[in-house]
Design goal:
- This protein is of the alpha/beta class and 972 residues long.
- The chain contains 26 helices and 30 strands.
- It is globular.
Length: 972
């Protein structure tokens, strides 16, 4: 979602123009009347004065009406949010959340290297901390993932201090004097500069004193990302803002990306490794850094990956370095020796169509106007995303794995060692199950992760299949040295099915041998067994659906495949070079143009169904919303309640759903509050926030389902204390590229790991009565052009197996009750108005019951409430008047509004606010003030009107007396 506070202000001011114009017209008319009605034009002074007074009374009344209409109209949502009562967290909740956030981060930190047993640092309590980032660490991300300053935050240095370390203050002073704050990187401005003190500014005495202070050195490297901008793949590309740290050299050469070290960082590493033999490198960021330089620095003994830490996470880093906590994180993404070797590199970023001038639309946003035209992106890699590409391509001999991959997916080291023994594998009644006995064979307590993968039978040229697929995982409890734990692994056989979009047009579990293995990471097999599926199972009948689908999953996205060459495993990835190349055509086909729509093209009347009958509205059935709590979605009582809604009731609730849904007094529906962001609840209107947990990447790195669920529960508890009902999270888009700006907010490159963590968070929040908006549904996997009519081309198999899978799990396993749709198009159809996505897949197949909400609604030339409600969209995340209002009052439109209202109200009544019946609410402060003001003006107008009439009558009487008086007779 957008970081839109100033944008809201500008947009609201723009929406006030019609009211101000009318008021201005009345004011000008009064001024004209005042000057036009004078002694020459109106002789009667009483009439003249009456007209003057009445005209200005009209101005006063018009001003009052206009202000009231502005307040209750375009400004209402913002005023409701801004004047909401501030509900703060209790001290007990703050303490509990801080402790949980620190515990979670203790399992999120991932040790990638630890040569010579360098860590933990048990021989000293003094530490030289190098790197400017040590003074400005990454806690979250920008945009909806921004952090609040309401609560104290632990830093890297404070975390080290609380763990008992003394750090070299002279180094810290050097960095803070060099630059006090991180360069601006937000929604609307991106300065990618990486501040770092040039090596020649470290004095000889500073280095000498550092060596005397301690023989241990830690170097901190940071990378920051956020909403609305992807990380630069070429630091010299046009539009990339970067200021070199020195006038003597360039930090980056042409073609180098921000995920490589800058020259200043390399120089710093040269300096540190020249003077210290034991160096720990801490990488603080979400996007996998290119670690190709490690081979050049044998002095770098240890490497820790520390994702954005949230409020108190860095306290756990200190404990890990001190040996108080044993790291147990595993990578949620693959780390490459060359980040530019990803199969997505040439197909991420900016691809504008060159023949769509007639499809451009005018956009007004954040105080500026511009023309927006359709753009596109091709998901050419198909299902071969992340490790699924590297492992499969290596198995097929298409790549040299060791040359490309630095650290595999699922990789992480510990201060101890473990042994995993795989028990007998059974396959019965559609389930695959086995036990794994994990034993701590080292000297210190620690946790381990059991990772289960499968390798399916593959027919050359048949259904695309990766050779390595995560299918299940479990994390052990903390095991003491010598202690064992038996972990049970179980999964359904249809978890190994593949989607066949060409022939069966359904999920298919092909007959043959499936290798099921336990692995220490995606590349390293510990043990394996063979499961034989005797005959092919096709999930294409109502009594044999895939993964419990309510209806058969069959092709819904044929129109999203486009004219794209997709990567295929056939003939050992024979088309690799062709498939991953940059697009050769920038033109939209005539066929797609016929299907494509935006706000200038879409006309509601063209989509009306003449057979639709107008639903009942405004009935007096006396049903209250609270009576429907716990009732089935299809309970007949819902029809009686929905009959009571008026067009305006429904339209206001649908169109103005920014940060909460509006009240409907006639049915007892109270205003509900929904808030961002992914790691914390932040109310930008009241300034109140919850405790921030580590980023989604960090949660994924824990590989701990229980911690994800506990985070959801704690967030739900904090939401209740803050009187918040809905949470704009979790995000579960896929790390399709290491350069995505929003990877910090999403879990992983793997759909299963993402889905498990997302489902846990959703279930945890739901247990507290808080509904989660799982987002961004779907295929919103890059920030570039996301609001520029971004046409996303992907084949059905990858859509279902990779990009929809986490959402499916969040619905089926987590019980999601709300969905935030994506900005992009899927094929020629906007995701927020895609009936195949929002109705057929989400509701019909998965059985979702709840409501869908757009991402931040600013129109952008294609967001359109009329279109959305007719195609599975329910609510507009708008706080201002743009194209978020339903303009059609046809039977088709009102039926769609009724369905949308049903979905919104179903989620609302099953939230925590209604658990004890109908909530009691008070009128908002601003509205109370408005009515008091209106009452005062009314009294004033009445008084002035009485006074005006009295004066008029008095003047008239004087005129009559003057006329009736006898004329004096002149004396001769």
């Amino acid at each position: 979602m957008l970081d839109i506070n100033m944008s809201d202000v500008i947009a609201v001011l723009s929406s006030l123009v019609p009211y101000l114009v009318v008021l201005g017209v009345v004011l000008v008319a009064a001024i004209i009347i005042t000057f036009a009605v004078n002694k020459k034009t109106v002789k009667d002074v009483s009439v003249r004065k009456l007209i003057h007074s009445e005209s200005w009374l009209v101005v006063l009344v018009a001003a009052t009406v206009a202000i009231a209409l502005m307040l209750t109209g375009p400004m209402a949502t913002l005023l409701n949010n801004a004047t909401a009562k501030k509900y703060k967290l209790s001290d007990e909740t703050i303490a509990t959340a801080n402790a949980q956030a620190q515990e979670l981060y203790g399992e999120a930190v991932t040790m990638l290297q630890n040569n010579d047993g360098n860590l933990p640092l048990t021989g000293t309590n003094k530490l030289n901390v190098f790197g400017w980032g040590s003074t400005q660490p990454i806690l979250g991300g920008s945009g909806s993932g921004s952090m609040s300053n309401e609560h104290p935050m632990a830093s890297i240095l404070s975390g080290l201090k609380q763990a008992g370390f003394e750090t070299n203050s002279a180094l810290t002073d050097l960095y803070t004097k060099y630059r006090a704050e991180r360069p601006v990187l937000n929604m609307f401005q991106q300065d990618w500069t990486l501040p770092e003190v040039p090596a020649d500014q470290y004095s000889d005495s500073l280095i000498s004193d550092a060596k005397s202070f301690s023989d241990e050195a830690m170097v901190v490297i940071t990378r920051f990302g956020g909403e609305n901008a992807d990380l630069p793949r070429d630091m010299k590309a046009e539009g990339v803002t970067y200021v070199n740290n020195s006038k003597d050299y360039e930090d980056y050469k042409q073609g180098e990306s921000i995920l490589q070290l800058s020259q200043t960082e390399r120089n710093m590493l040269d300096l540190v490794t020249k003077n210290f033999d034991k160096v720990t490198l801490v990488y603080n960021g979400s996007n996998p850094l290119q670690f190709d330089f490690l081979a050049n620095y044998p002095q770098i003994k240890s490497v820790l990956w520390c994702p954005p830490a949230g409020q108190t996470g860095f306290n756990a880093l200190g404990d890990i370095l001190a040996g108080k906590v044993n790291p147990s994180g595993k990578t949620s993404d693959t780390f490459l020796k060359d980040v530019r070797s990803t199969p997505t590199l040439n197909n991420i970023g900016n691809f504008p169509y060159d023949n769509v001038e007639d499809m451009s639309a005018k956009v007004s946003f954040a105080g500026s106007e511009y023309m927006s035209s359709p753009t596109f992106v091709n998901y050419v890699e198909g299902i071969y995303v992340g490790y699924k590409f590297y492992e499969t391509a290596a198995d097929e001999g298409a790549i040299d794995y060791d040359e490309l991959v630095q650290y595999p997916f699922g990789y992480g080291l510990s201060y101890t060692t473990f042994d995993q023994k795989m028990g007998d594998v059974t396959y019965a009644d559609g389930k695959v199950s086995f036990d794994v006995t994990v034993t701590n064979t080292g000297d210190v307590a620690g946790k381990d992760v059991v990772e289960a993968y499968y390798n399916p039978p593959y027919t050359d040229g048949g259904i695309e299949k990766a050779s390595v697929n995560l299918v299940a995982f479990e994390k052990t409890k903390e095991l003491a040295p010598g202690e064992s734990e038996t972990v049970s692994i179980e999964f359904d056989d249809d978890d190994m099915a593949s989607y066949d979009s060409k022939d069966a047009k359904a999920y298919v579990l092909e007959q043959g041998d499936y290798e099921v293995s336990i692995q220490s990471d995606s590349h390293t097999v510990i043990d394996s067994a063979t499961v034989n599926v005797p005959e092919t199972i096709t999930y294409d009948t109502e009594d044999n659906t895939h993964d419990g689908d309510k209806t058969v999953a069959t092709n819904q996205f044929d129109d999203a495949e486009g004219d794209v060459t997709y990567l295929s495993r056939a003939d050992h990835f024979a088309n690799l070079k062709e498939a991953v190349a940059a697009p050769t055509s920038m033109s939209m086909s005539d066929e797609v143009k016929k299907e494509f729509t935006n706000n200038d093209i879409y006309k509601p009347s063209e989509h009306d169904d003449s057979s639709d009958e107008m639903p009942t509205t405004g009935a007096k059935n006396g049903v209250r919303l609270a009576e429907l709590r716990g009732k089935d979605y299809d309970d007949p009582q819902w029809d009686k309640l929905l009959d009571q809604l008026t067009f305006d009731d429904m339209e206001n609730m649908i169109s103005m759903a920014g940060y909460g849904t509006a009240a409907i007094d006639s049915i007892g529906k109270i205003k509900l509050t929904d808030l961002d962001g992914p790691a914390a609840l932040i109310n930008n209107f009241t300034g109140v926030s919850s405790i921030a947990f580590p980023s989604a990447v960090g949660i994924a790195n824990t590989w701990n389902k229980d911690l994800a669920t506990e985070f959801g529960k704690t967030l739900g508890k904090m939401a209740r204390e803050m009187h918040v009902d809905g949470w704009y999270a979790p995000g579960m888009n896929i790390h399709r590229s290491p350069f995505s700006g929003r990877n910090f907010e999403y879990f992983s490159e793997d759909a299963l790991l993402s889905g498990v963590m997302a489902a846990g968070e959703v279930a945890g929040a739901r247990s507290q009565g808080v509904y989660s908006f799982i987002k961004h549904f779907a295929l919103n996997d890059q920030e570039t052009n996301r609001t520029a009519m971004l046409v996303t081309w992907a084949n059905e198999q990858s859509i279902r197996e990779i990009y929809l899978k986490p959402f499916e799990m969040a619905v089926k396993d987590g019980g999601a009750q709300a969905v935030m749709t994506a900005y992009n198009y899927i094929g020629p159809t906007y995701a927020g108005a895609n009936p195949a996505l929002l109705n057929t897949v989400l509701r019909d197949e998965w059985g979702f019951r709840g409501f869908t909400l757009t991402d931040y609604f600013a129109g952008f030339g294609y967001q359109n409430a009329d279109q959305e409600i007719r195609n599975g969209g329910d609510a507009m995340l708008a706080t201002m008047d743009v194209t978020n209002h339903v303009t059609s009052k046809s039977a088709t439109s009102v039926k769609a509004m009724r369905t949308a209202s049903h979905n919104i109200l179903y989620t609302a009544v099953n939230s925590w606010q209604y658990e004890n019946g109908e909530p009691k609410v008070t009128m908002p402060v601003w509205k109370t003030g408005m009515w008091i003001g209106v009452a005062i003006v009314a009294v004033l107008v009445i008084g002035l009107e009485v006074l005006t009439i009295q004066k008029y009558l008095k003047r008239r009487k004087q005129v009559v007396v003057s006329v009736d008086a006898p004329t004096p007779v002149a004396q001769a």
